[in-house]
Amino acid sequence: MDGTAIREALSTMDERGNGEGAGFAVYGAFPEFADYYAVHVFYDDLIGPKTAVEEELEKLGTVAHDEEIPTYEQAGLKKRHIPWRYFFQPNVSALGTTASEEDILVYLMKKVNTTIPGALIYSTGKNIGVFKAAGWPEDVADFYRIQDYEGYLWLSHNRYPTNTAGWWGGAHPFNLLDWTVVHNGEITSYGTNKRYLESFGYVCTMHTDTEVVAYLTDLLRRQHSLPTELAFKALAPPFWDDIDRMPERERALDTALRMTYSPAMMNGPFAIVVANSEGMVGITDRIKLRPLVAAEAGDRLYLSSEEAAIRVVEPSPDRVWMPRAGEPVIGRVW
Amino acid sequence: MPIGSVPAKYKVTIDSDLCMLCERCIENCPYGTFRREGNKILAFSRACTGCHRCVAMCPRDAISLEEKPVDYRSHPVWSREAREAIYTQAQSGKIVLTGMGNALDVPPIFDRLLLDACQVTNPSIDPLREPMELRTYIGKKPRRIDIRQTPDGDTDLVTELAPNLKCETPIMIGHMSYGAISLNAQLSLARGAVAAGTFMGTGEGGLHQSLYPYQNNMIVQIASGRFGVDIDYLERGAAIEIKIGQGAKPGIGGHLPGEKVDESVSKTRMIPPHSDAISPAPHHDIYSIEDLSQLVRSLKEATEWKKPVFVKIAAVHNVAAIAAGIARSSADAVVIDGFRGGTGTAPRVFRDHVGIPIEAAVAAVDAKLTEQGIRNEVSVIASGGIRDSADVTKAIALGADAVYIGTAALISLGCRVCGHCYRGLCPWGIATQREDLTARLDPDVMHQNVSNLIHGWTLEISELMGAAGINSIESLRGNRDRLRGYMLDENLLSVLDVKTVGAGA
């Protein structure tokens, strides 16, 4: 799929945003560099910050290729940053400690985002392109010409910022390594989730509740090896009254899951879609305070805040449904 | 050298136009404040403790009570309390005793913390229309769970959970022993705890057999005197608590005067009647953290690893590291008792000057356990000066799993915080063993007060959570983002890990 349809879909939901943030992510964007981590950086200028970031990259690994991400002037969008991408191979012995490739990327991201003013790493996944800016969806799409990119899984988001208005870094999707998240909502349990993640060594640097979704998913799926269904059940678990009524075996599992992962539970209104290279999951909070619609057409899965956006891309889906509160909709790449 | 008398603390006056000479005041005051002379009730104000029993029982509202009718020359340094302690000690040459909690005139930190509510960007949740979950499990949690996929596609749990206490509210009742308080008071608390779906502590006074019907909601305590402890006692409790220290008097032991040790208290404590029950300052089998760890394991072995074991410590300067040490033993929960914690008796100098506030202690413990990556594996119970549902909510947002209430529960039984518990004459039948006094407290009636109080606070916590857009207590725990500090200095804000009022997300 190229980006033409997703541009149209997101633009039908213009009134869910206010023209201050929109973005797109696509898996499978860089087949020629598929084995490299695509490090995306916003530079405030090309003088100081770029040199500093490139010094870090050189210390930590090898850059196979880098380029300014092509952009095209739009009347309604002011270019505040210069987006750049590096196809990067980390050197696992660079830090001298036990580290995986992912650890090096996390280190790099933290180092750049906390110590180099004027540079922000906003995406680090392999074969994943992320395109975001402060603007209306169609302007952001045309600014990057997302129709020029192709991939097998697309995410997009239109933002109505309250906290970090106009900040490009605050636009969704958020990416961390293979995980990408779009989120509609406000996580009222952020403080609890953040502390829980910190106890496992995660550091929240993006000043947004959305990043905890990516870290929690990473913790439960990758570190604790929970299957997708259980990982998302931990994030939005059934109510105790419902658990108490379950058959014995299920009750034992759900009780243990909820007791063990209670600080990972996400509270407050949200509809989120979390993707990685193997698929995507959509889920809402436990009482569905934000909308989520799902549809299937052939081997494609669509998740959206509005059915209208799905029908722009797929006028006659095989099935359209409203997922129940807290019930994950899981799509796997075959 | 006689100093003469110090001014009376209270002045009791009776309006003889209202008084109908029913003599209820005379009957009700065990301190001998009232007497009848002819057609008049006279009051000996110096005997009054300010307990309000007479005021509460007077059918005509004829009694009024004035505090400090004659005060000292005001002075910023030489307060009344400072001067009177000196007069007392000049005569006795002993330690000054007091009852109830810290009376130091400094504002509770709780009063300088403000809670959050939702407006527009997220909806508040209406607890009358949506589920609101306050269920709290107290005990060890695994770091992660392991599962096995069965061939028929089902998922089986491999991880075995440690025993936990299931509370329907994060409010539990702390440890107040039979001896310090009456059996009727304990029965009222126990039945209230059962009705509220929560737990209460026995204190270090054994478990009287009339409490056996409520044992599944009781946490049995082991303190340095080991009073009332045998295998039967351990097996009856829902959980076991090792008490190392107490917020009202950190670092020292306890003393139940022989006068309070009647036949029944003596049997329950397993000590001779009328003998003083003295709990030593340390446990003489715990001189180090590894000794504590051994005792925790011994208790678990003795009860076949079926009971959670809590360890209670007073909030002292290094509370975070001590709590982390406890969390690394086999203990299931750490109880932190702040310097406002109540007591039947404590030396004034300890009550007012040793230990730190629960707010700072809980925040520091939560931070340390988080830093060490073990916060979620152990429960933290906060106690010491919890006065209302707002304090409970703030304590949880600062990092506690649940709270113990003590004084608040006694107040629900009528206690007026007069602070004379150590005299054994409590007119409300709470801190006394005198039969005519304990008979005033009818557990059949008063247990309802206890469950009402817990129920009322629980409803208020639900409303506060709903307003903050949170429908499960787990999402409030340690959620410092939903607190703001008001008129707190920067260092304290940093210990609490709370932003100042006015600071955004």
Number of strands of chain B: 23
Strand content of chain B: 15-25%
This entry's quaternary arrangement is heterodimer
Largest pleated sheet of chain B: 8 strands, parallel, barrel
- Protein chains sharing the most extensive interface: A-B, 43 and 50 residues
Count of extended strands of chain A: 15
Helix content of chain B: 25-40%
Order of helices and strands of chain A: HEEHEEHEEHEEEHHHHHEEEEHEE
Approximate strand percentage of chain A = 25-35%
Number of domains of chain B: 2
What is the CATH architecture descriptor of the largest domain in chain B? Alpha-Beta Barrel
Question: Numbering strands along the chain, what is their spatial order in the largest sheet of chain A?
Answer: 8-9-10-11-15
Summarize it.
The complex is a heterodimer of chains A (334) and B (505). Chain A is of the alpha+beta class and 334 residues long.
